[in-house]
Write a sequence for this structure.
């Protein structure tokens, strides 16, 4: 499952608002603040610059948002693969060399291949 704290962070980062993120995720604003603070403590990095009631992403926050979106995309793809009973033979090769291979017993392999091609082209610029 996509880490809930990353989900909270991503919502705050995209909205640049703890309140709007809390409404989107349907948790209290103090809970949103707590999740972000815990993530900052764990990473030992300030993710947002807080200026009054406005916030901006720091360079660390921008970097985390970039990778959080990639993680979410991979999570979505893997969930789709699981739902269609497909399997990636070598995930490390996918991430490092951008090669991918499939085995399938059912499902529409071409749509999954297209999804991976789009993901690799747009998101895996490591």
């Amino acid at each position: 499952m996509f880490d809930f704290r990353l989900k909270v962070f991503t919502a705050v980062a995209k909205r640049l608002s703890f309140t709007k993120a809390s409404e989107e995720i349907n948790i209290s604003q103090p809970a949103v603040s707590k999740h972000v603070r815990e993530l900052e403590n764990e990473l030992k990095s300030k993710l947002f610059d807080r200026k009054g009631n406005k916030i901006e992403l720091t360079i660390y926050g921008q970097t985390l948002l970039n990778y959080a979106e990639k993680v979410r995309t991979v999570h979505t793809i893997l969930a789709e693969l699981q739902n269609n009973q497909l399997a990636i033979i070598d995930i490390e090769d996918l991430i490092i060399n951008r090669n991918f291979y499939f085995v399938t017993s059912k499902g529409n392999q071409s749509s999954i291949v297209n999804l991976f091609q789009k993901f690799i082209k747009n998101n895996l610029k490591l």
User: Anything to note?
Assistant: The helical segments are 4-15, 18-25, 29-43, 59-83, 91-97, 109-123.
